Every structure is written in structure tokens, then in C-alpha cells.
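Crash report, auto-generated. Payload:
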Amino acid sequence: MNTGSGTEKLRMFGDGGAEAMRKKSAAVVGLGALGSVSALLLSRFPLGRLVLLDRDIVEKKNIGRQWLYSEEDASDSLPKAEAAKARLERFACCPLEARDVNLDAEQAELLFGECDIVVDATDNFDTRYMMNEASVKHRKPWVYGGVLGSGGSSLFIDHTTGPCLRCVFGDTPAVGAEESCDTTGIHPSAPTMIASFQASEAAKFLAGKNDRVERGFFDMDLQEARFATIKVAKDPECPVCGAHEFPRLDNSPADEVRELCGGESVLIMLKGRKFDLSELERRLKSEGAVFSNRFLLRFEKEGVRMTIHSDGRVLVHGIPEGKKAMSYASRALGL
Ligand SMILES: [Zn+2]
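Recovered output after restart:
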């Protein structure tokens, strides 16, 4: 860990910034294009701890836009959280913790319970609405961030002093606000811009400079060179920050089956199940091609690939339909 340069850059946050930060912990959720930059920036502050959370493994297609990863990380099938930690540890000014998990309701509560602030670098509103509920329940702020095309937006969310995500976007975000699965249309500078804004607002909060945190909705478009901060207000009828209703935390499904972006893969989350990967490897190697490292086991047969993690996560690639993927996994894994 780099202990030398963490304090110097804190001059702009005024007296006591470094001392305040040492007592705080932050998390970055999602370590793709946005999260790579947020994590890179936040890791250079003298925080008490920085948690890096992502459920995916590094793939070759990630390398161009996700700056923390190398070709070797993809070849070795490393979890993004572990690869990011290994890369950042070379120059980080704070202890790093990798969490190679799916952010379900349980993990969201754990994260918001432990950390002082959470930076959103996910790519879907389902997860963000769940994070929003956890933020209100645990009275911890978070920083929303999203990019689309050449545009992007961000908002520091602290429901005790301003609106929550539900207040701003309503039940579901307006058409056009949801990111597309197709990231090829994203301006390469847009994630960097939004992640920098998010990290800057998070850093002000972590340094104890709450009065300097921007409370407006930051919105920008690089093609038009447009940057604006829009005033947003609390919805007095908001069921989340007003009535403290948390449907996504309280009614989370037993097992989760989610068809993923790109239409080729299905993520299955088997709650409460732990896999013994060595035992599975012994069983599966006579039936198809098997690859393993200390984080996961991959099984491939007749064009279908399953990536299995010990925490009950199974990614099925090659069967795009949820129910069929679940029944394939059940048969292959003997569930
Ligand atoms: Zn609200």
C-alpha cells in the first residue's frame, strides 16, 4: 500500500480531510467502465477501507474500456473484483477489499450497513432501486451514475437532506434514461467524466466537507459540450424515503434467474447453496471440458458453458432463455 501521497492531494478539501477519511470506508459497486475509473480515483485517498464489488469475471471484450484489466486477467478468468484489487494495490493509499459477489438484497444490506458511502457503477435500474432502498434503510448516502451515448448523469443521494432515487425517477426511469445493453454506442470519454464527478462528490463527503457536496442532478453531453446541474426535490409521497417501504429488500426472490444483456447468458443465483468446486470438478470432468482456478469452475459441453462460483452463482452461456438455462444447470449440477 502506498502511504506517501494520500494526504497531499487533500489540501483542496481543507483542514482535517485526511483524518476524516481515515475513519471512513467507501464502496464501488460494479467494476466496468464507470467503476474502473471511480475505483482508480478513490483508491488514491487515505481511506479506512475501499470495497470493490462485482459479480463478473474479466472477459476479452472488457479490456478496451475497462482500464483496470489486462489480457492476462481475461485469459486467467479472474473475477473483476480480484483483478481490480490486484491492479490497484500497486499504488493504492488505502486498504482494498475485493467482493466477488452478486449484489442481491442481502449483500446490499451488508454493504450499506458497513460502508459510509457507496458509489454506483452498475448498469441497471433494478439494482439501483435496491441500493436506494438499502441507502434509506441504513441512512447512508450513495452516488448514482449512468452513461448513455455521449451523455451521462450523476446525483449524490442522501435522503436525510434531499431526494432519493425514487423521488427523482418515480416508479421506473423515463424512457431513454435506462442504459442500453449495447455499449458500443457509448462515447469513450463519457464514463470517465461521470465517474470523475462521482468520485469527487464521494471524496468531499468522506473528507467531512458535506457543505461542498453538489446536491443538484448533474447532467452532461459531450457531443454538445453541454454541462448542467438541475435542481431536484423530494417527493412528499415517496414510498421509499417517505414511508420507508422497501419492497426490493423485503421481497427478494429465493432463487434469482436473470437473462443478461447481450441475449446469450443467464445468471442463476441459488440462495443459501454453497458449491464444493473440487468435488464438482471431479464429477464433471468425465462429462465435458473443465477449467478451474481458485475462484471458479467452468464446464463446457456442446456449445454451452457454465461458470460456477462457490457462493451459488451459476452463469450459463449459450442458453439465452431463463427457464431452459435453469433446467440445464439443475441437470448438470445435480440440483
Ligand atoms: Zn424518495
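Post-recovery validation: Residues 159, 163-164, 166-167, 235, 238, 240-241 surround zinc ion (CB under 6 Å).
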